[in-house]
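Thread: Modeling a multi-component assembly for a lab meeting

Hi all, long-time lurker, first post. My supervisor asked me to bring a structural picture of a complex we are working on to next week's group meeting, and I have zero experience with this. I have the sequence lines for every component (476 residues in total). Could someone generate the structure of the whole assembly? Inputs are pasted exactly as I received them:
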Amino acid sequence: MIEILSKIPRFMAYRRFGWPKMLPINLTLSPSPRCNSRCLTCNIWMKREDELTLEEWDKVFQSLGHAPFWFTVSGGEPFMNKEIVELCQSFYRHCRPGIINIPTNSLLAHRIPQKVEGICQSCPESQVIINLSLDGVGAKHDHIRGVEGNFEKFEQNYKALMALKATYSNLTIGVHSVISRFNVDDAPELFAYAFSIKPDSYITEIAEQRIELDTVGLNITPPRDKYGWAIDQLIARIESRHFGGISKVTEAFRVEYYKLVKRILAEQTQVIGCYAGWASAQIYANGEVWPCCIRADSIKNLRDVNYDFRRVWFSPEAERIRTSIRNKECYCPLANASYTNMLMHPPTVARVGAKVAMASIPLLNSREQPEPTPVLGGQ
Amino acid sequence: MQWLDEMIRAPKDAGYAERALARYRLGMKGHGALCGVRILPGDEHCPVCTHLAADMYQPDEAPRIPLAGCPYAEGCRCAYRPVMTYELVNGSAHVDP
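Re: Modeling a multi-component assembly
Sure thing. I ran the full set together rather than chain by chain. Output:
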């Protein structure tokens, strides 16, 4: 972690001056768009790609070395990939990330715990975070996710994964909700349920238009006032609790993120500088490298450069896209990129530091109950 | 978001229509909320495509991009967009372009 913090000034210089050249610390992989959900907020499941093989992925990871600290294995549904354990083993062998983050819709609840166990065993020095999607309680979840019985599968998967935590100290189980116009009115019920089952972390993200998900132009984002109403309740829930240890930091960042989303919706610009294309990136199923999944504009395809990520990342094409991002030709509240952006934003880090310091004064917090350890992250 | 609308209006390559419509064909079979496709005009004043924008098509019946007579020399800027069941008003296929 100290190594990551030491990179922050270098990323700030890289974004501003183009030097020193840095590889991303936050990398999202989409090995396949295939998905067995039929969410109202996502159309990625309709895509089919000439997907990178495990051998091809291995070459990519080899070219990255130890640069990425945080891997997200996205999708589609990541656990539909029969080689997900081998994929994680491959990047663990070459990159040794601190965090491996995998979202899931829980529909393959009979298979997921065994796969997660395999990943935890194979990647003992990484924190493995499994985020279970939850967009409503009971039938509301099934309706939004487009699959009957999904909520039941969620509960089954959650129970089985929580049981694994007794064996694997590197396993974190989170719950992740997408707040859309389909569930924003029910957000209090959703938050109450999510907190009641006591996951290690609870994350929400706003439904937004993304090129990756083929949702550009669709009316899925909740109205700004309704989102504000909902997220203020979540912020109040978080701020009324006392967190211990590293959780003080992660929850302070999370509150900062929710406030940042409100500002981005209101101001419709990059409220803080975006580091997608510098500190974070995504590799899509067919080998294209994107700065992020919102723009999904291909810098280059790894297949065209013998799987050498550096030849993509330090190319003139990458620089052209960086210029567009730096010039604020885009903006979005994507959680995965936003957490990296906040780390690179000194005023945000200072506010988090002050909040953590205040929360550490015993007299101010003596009546509150400690919470389980949450973990920072998106997806 | 306006900037995203502009991004998907980038010039299309020759295989765009087949790729996109194959996706929506699969989407129609997949028991999701997709109920058709529409055309996002490359330019709101384009005489070739604006009159097509209000209609919903089945993937097999959608006009092929690039549209005949497209004025963009560097490639048609129109894009297919999904139409979802929750966008329909009173079951009507008419969508707001």
